[in-house]
Amino acid sequence: MRSIRIYKIIKTFLQYGLDELLPRNAIPWYVKIARIAVFWLRNKHKDKTKAQRFRLAIESLGPVFIKFGQMLSTRRDLLPQKFAEELALLQDQVPPFDGELSLKLIKQAIGEVEFEQHFKDFNTQSLASASIAQVHTATLLDEQQQAHEVVIKVLRPGIEKIILADLKVMLMFAGIVAKWLPDGKRLRPKEVVNEYKKTILDELDLNREAANAIQLKRNFSLDRPQDHHLYVPEIYSSFSHKNVLVMERIYGIGVGEVETLTQLGVDMKLLAERGVEVFFTQVFRDSFFHADMHPGNVFVDATNPADPTWIAIDCGIVGTLNKEDKRYLAENFVAFFNRDYRKVAQLHVDSGWVPRNTSVDEFEFAIRTVCEPIFNKPLAEISFGQVLVNLFNTARRFNMEVQPQLVLLQKTLLYIEGLGRQLYPQLDLWQTAKPFLENWVQEQMGVKAVFNKVKDNLPFWNEKLPEIPDLIYDYLNSGKQNHIKQIELLSKISQQQQSKSAQLSFSILSAGAMVTTALLASQAMLIPASGFAVAALLFMVKALKA
To answer: 123 in a domain, yes or no?
Structure first.
């Protein structure tokens, strides 16, 4: 089975002429002979560019490769610009599998009796179908027999086996790319495939997606005025399992349907700005962000066109940032806004993401070289995501290690910026984000931040306060005992040094006596020499005993 799949992949690559991407001088002679041997597998798409052929080949290999291509399109630090743009066109549109089989899998997970008791109007015709799962509509009856419109997401049967098999093949080809391409080490294909492996395997556990959606919904719980800018559907976790997810059905307009939104009179500028605010709120306030916000997972509630709301679904992939990551990113962004490249360079060194011995002056000059041409453009024409890509590219030249959470952040930021500019081309993302980030930095470093830290630590201090007198006594007592031990140790060392000094003195005198004895003996002065010999012997014995 695996050999058949490998043959199909090689056949696809050759028919799209992807062997032309490999440098001729780097290909071993036996591979060149093998290529000639399969002469019937020729490039059938010579009229297209290499980037187009690369995208079409991935598209023809099926859903697992398509999702990999989508992920790869966000790694603009690794791919040429044209290739990244082509891969961004990949659409994950997969024919649905049989609805009756879907119903059978759902009943097996939930339980046939419980399903019949709580669900009705199940539609075997899928509402949507993707590479990993498909969704069906139904009506859920709760304990009070109240009806709720829901969608039921179910994993494709056998999808995990298919994914694991394709991942093994991907890793094999990644090894070939790393070995043959001159730039193979920088591209790090094995690391990229392993990164994709972790992401896609996480998506196979719908319990994880349910937990992520519940967390995101709680973060935007409408307790604060700005939280109604994002709506997350309700998750019915009591009916959800690893391969089945039951959630509230939402009615929204796809964010890509710009004409429909415009016809409804939606405030596009406000919608775009709110999208940016929602993203930065997730990242810097909650440290928990939806990391797969492509157009298929984002909708708009246009019930009130003057007050549009974002709707997010499919929370299978999320990103998190710790306090150090957030501070580093926020300060970097603010420094970029102010074109303070020295601070950007220093922040990288201080964060430990580039080696401590990195020259700040050289690093600052490299960042300035990349970013100054960008700032010559009007702010509205600058790609925020591209600036982040350039920053990471430059930092990597100075041996910065790639942080997985930043890769997800970069990917999401590119999605958000693309959606925002699609809705409102004049969107000034910089101007929208700058006040938010400056306020956040101020909150983290100002008087309010100190007060909040004290307040957060009060329970811990309250618990430890009664123990402080005992801790002080133990510290002072142990200090006194350590001092006595130090004095004893120093005294012992002094005695040993005195003993060594005595041994050295006796050894020198003994050696002198022996030399004198030898000289007297050479002058035939036997009696005096014997006396010296006895004396020297006594000195030697004394020295050994000392």
So the answer is: no
